[in-house]
Amino acid sequence: MNPSPYGVPLKDAQFFPFPRVVRCCLANLISLLFQFTALLISVPFTDLQLNQKGIQNMQGFLYLIVTEVIFTFAYNVFHTFPREVPVMLREIGGGLYKPGPYYLSKMIGLVSVKP
Predict the structure, then answer these.
(1) Integer Cα distance of 20 and 44 in angstroms
(2) Cβ contact 25:33 at 8 Å
(3) Do 8 and 16 form a contact (C-beta atoms < 8 A)?
(4) CB of 80 within 8 A of CB of 110?
(5) How far is CA 53 from the centre of its chain?
(6) pLDDT tens digits, residue range 14-27?
(7) How far apart are CA 58 and CA 48, in angstroms?
(8) How many helical (H) and strand (E) elements, i.e. helices and strands, does the chain have?
């Protein structure tokens, strides 16, 4: 009988639903965290008026939203590169490629994948 990814026979694999459950709960937790953050950021800007101060507050709010979105996706990069530095240094030292093409291809690869 072929072993499953868990290292047990397939007939016993039904007792290992843990990764799927964790992924589902983690996705719900992350969604809830994003909703809470959005509520926390937007509540102070609920009663804006159409005067100079209100317009400046709206511009600040839009700036805050843009920076939060950018940093949300930038955190993936902060976690990805340190794990890959040893492999990258070995391959650059071996003359496989230079750092520029590595970073360019990594950025293209990260843009095309959903976080």
Answers:
(1) 38
(2) no
(3) yes
(4) yes
(5) 34
(6) 555 556 656 667 77
(7) 8
(8) 3, 0
Q: Which two tokens stand for residue 11?
A: 């007939």
Give the DSSP per-residue string, 60-99.
HHHHHHHHHHHHHHHHHHHHHHHHHHHHHHHHHHTTS--H
Count of all residues that appear for the chain in the document: 115
- The residue among 80, 111, 112, 114 whose CA lies nearest residue 88 is 80
pLDDT in tens, 55-87: 898 898 889 888 888 887 777 777 777 888 888
Cα 10 to the center of its chain, rounded Å: 33
Angle at 70 between CA 45 and CA 50, to 5 degrees: 25
In this structure, the number of other CB atoms found within 10 A of the CB of residue 6 comes to: 13
pTM for the whole structure: 0.42
Structure tokens at 109: 């690869």
Instruction: Spell out a b/e string for 24-41, using b for 16 or more CB atoms within 10 Å of the CB, else e.
Output: eeeeeeeeeeeeeeeeee
Compute the distance between CA of residue 80 and CA of residue 88 in angstroms, rounded to an integer: 12
Amino acid (1-letter code) at residue 113: V
Token pair of 100 as six digits: 């520029």
